[in-house]
Every structure is written in structure tokens, then in C-alpha cells.
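Exercise (ungraded).
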Amino acid sequence: AQSVTQLGSHVSVSEGALVLLRCNYSSSVPPYLFWYVQYPNQGLQLLLKYTSAATLVKGINGFEAEFKKSETSFHLTKPSAHMSDAAEYFCAVSDRGGATNKLIFGTGTLLAVQP
Amino acid sequence: GAVVSQHPSWVICKSGTSVKIECRSLDFQATTMFWYRQFPKQSLMLMATSNEGSKATYEQGVEKDKFLINHASLTLSTLTVTSAHPEDSSFYICSARDPRDRLYGYTFGSGTRLTVV
């Protein structure tokens, strides 16, 4: 069975500060890993995904994440937070296979950005 | 990129009535769509996998007769909440994967806020 654990349900940073959102995964097979962002009352938008190519993945809006197999981690970072980054962030895992594969989500981290 | 349209974005219904939510893939054919439920300040819980032309696969603990899923075409899946009750109030989100995207991009609808009064 696959799962992801997001450490910290709430993270608060100052505008311009480093953003670090933590995600650890558990998978018996090589995983695909994703980070999504959700704004209030909206669906999810894909920030980035790891699918076994480069371990450092760059996404939209200046976000990036690094796949570390030894640590079973896929932490999301952004060098400088912007007010518009305030949202809920979800890490997700899927095993490799066909189109019917499911995404399993973590519990989410609510990011607050202080002026 | 792939677009998934979900309607309605919000709905209020009386207890005991049924509500239908539509999920459409606008520019690709989706043989499989996924339905999620999200409670306030919680994560997305997969309810079921909708397969075109066959029965949906429900996750453990999800009532099949309560949450009817129909995937009659390659671009449309519907979720019907039957005999809705206040505890069914939630945010429902659908998702589909564009088979043209070899790098596993799942696209999500904008969600439906259901309130049962």
C-alpha cells in the first residue's frame, strides 16, 4: 500500500522567506510523486511531479522539489514566498502503471504568508 | 493542456433529494475518472474510480447505492448523491488523466460544494 505523510498541517512564513513543505512517502514500488496546490473552494492545480527522470523537479510559480530515495522524501521548496502562495498544498503518490492508477493524497499543509 | 469541467460549482438541496454532479473532459478522452470527497480543512479522500462503459470501482466504506456513478461516454462521468442528508454536505472533486500525457498528469475539476439542508 502507498501513502504519503505531510509533516505540519500549518506552516507560516514571512513574505520573501524560504518556503519548505515536507512530504514523506511509503511505497513498495518506485513511486510517482506529485505536489498540488488548492485555493479556497477550487480544484487542485498541479505544481510539479516526479516520474523517475531528474530527482530535482522544477514546477510552476518558482516551486521545486527533490526526490530523495534514501530519505523517502519529496519536500517542496520555494526560495522566496509571495503573498499569492498562501493556499493549501497536497503531496500525492501513485504507483506506476496504466491510466487507472489512483492518486493517494497526504493530509495537506496550509501555507500562510505574512506581510 | 487538458481541461476538466465540473458542474455545478455549488448546490444546495433539501434533505432526501438527489443531486447530480457532472465531470467532463473537454479536450481529451478519459476512459477513467476519479471522484474525491473533501471535508473542511481535510485531505481528498478517493471515493471511486469511474470506468467508461463499466461499473465504477468504489473504495472501502463508500456506499455504492448512495453515490451512484455513471461513465456513459469517454468525456462524461456523473456522480449522483441519492437521498442526500446533511452529513453528505462536502466538497466533491473529480479528476481524469489525459492518456496523451505520458508523464502522468492528472487534471482536476474545480469542485462542487454540496450543502444539504
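Further reading is listed at the end of the chapter. For now, observe: Residues 93 and 112 of chain B are 6 Å apart (CA to CA). Chain B touches chain A at residues 4, 6, 9-10, 31-32, 34, 41-46, 49, 51, 91, 93, 95, 97, 99, 103-111, 113 (CB under 8 Å).
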